[in-house]
Specification:
This protein is α/β, with parallel strands linked by helices. The chain has a domain at 76-263. It contains eleven helices and nine strands. Strands 1-9-8-2-5-3-4 form a seven-stranded mixed sheet, sandwiched between helices. The chain has a two-stranded antiparallel ribbon with strand order 6-7. It is globular and about 50 Å long. It starts with a helix and ends in an 18-residue tail after the last helix.
């Protein structure tokens, strides 16, 4: 974090890309998973194209991490300047209903930046986070709250999450992989194979009668803002079951991952060999 505050961004990005390229050779387990992910997400492309996307993954991840660590010192204006936004009207329309909003995203791009942008725009945003070791968790909590994002613990926050939604707030959930053992999930198509994704976001939206807005944030080419943040039209939970809403959400998350396989930061080898029912 010290370097992120004191070195020029171009230097930090260059160092990050070098470290990521080095990591390709020094982390064989992650390299193998990245290659497997690319094969499933890019089934119609050549082995060379799949390998090129996999090799870009760690440099992109390290660069995104640099920008995330810079956020607490950037201020609201700096955060807004970093992001080009599409579909903000979708988010505001859902928020203005006054029933809370379930924001769902995947591990695509610097997804925490999306929540920080919402906080910088004045939205009351909560993020559900995994419980980590006490020292690590405390450090991350300090970093995250410095950006204006309030935190809810995954292991103890189900009731709090429901209350936050009923009060009309936004809740951000990352929902393209299962976390922990015994977590409920259902398989949805991801490229040429299924992956299990959690049922929690859909279940909370239905229980709270809160609209769902699926979003993504990815690198943006060219000059100007560094990232493009996109919000899809809100989905009303009425008329959906948990399973059907999970599949609706999952199809959008899979589309994000397939469109940006070199920015899908999932390193769990969870491609089950079974049919999707």
């Amino acid at each position: 974090m010290f370097l992120a505050r004191h070195l020029p961004p171009r230097v930090l990005h260059a160092l990050a890309r070098f470290a990521g390229s080095l990591g390709w050779w020094l982390a064989p387990a992650r390299r193998a998973i990245a290659l497997e992910n690319a094969r499933h997400l890019m089934p119609g492309q050549t082995a060379l194209q799949q390998r090129d996307a996999a090799r870009r993954l760690l440099p992109n991840l390290f660069e995104a991490a640099v920008d995330l660590f810079r956020l607490p010192s950037m201020g609201a204006t700096g955060v807004r300047d970093l992001v080009e936004v599409h579909g903000e009207d979708h988010l505001r329309a859902a928020f203005n209903l006054g029933r809370g909003v379930v924001i769902v995203t995947g591990h695509v791009g610097p997804y925490e930046l999306g929540a920080v942008w919402m906080a910088a725009m004045g939205f009351p945003i909560y993020a559900m986070v995994e419980d980590l070791a006490p020292e690590t968790g405390a450090a991350l909590a300090t970093y995250r709250t410095a950006t204006g994002v309030k935190l809810v613990s995954r292991n103890t926050g189900a009731r709090q999450l429901y209350r936050v939604l009923k009060e009309g707030n936004l809740v951000a959930l990352v929902a393209d992989r299962l976390v922990g053992t015994g977590a409920p999930g259902i398989p949805v198509p991801f490229g040429d194979a299924p992956r299990d994704i959690p049922t929690g976001p859909a279940a909370f939206a239905i229980a709270a009668n809160a609209p769902v807005v699926v979003g993504s944030i990815v690198r943006r080419p060219g000059a100007g803002p560094r990232y493009r943040l996109t919000f899809e039209p809100p989905v009303e939970p009425a008329g959906y079951t948990t399973d059907t809403l999970v599949r609706r959400i999952g199809s959008q998350l899979a589309s994000f991952a397939q469109s940006h396989p070199d920015e899908w930061y999932v390193f769990q080898p969870a491609w089950p060999a079974r049919d999707i029912r």
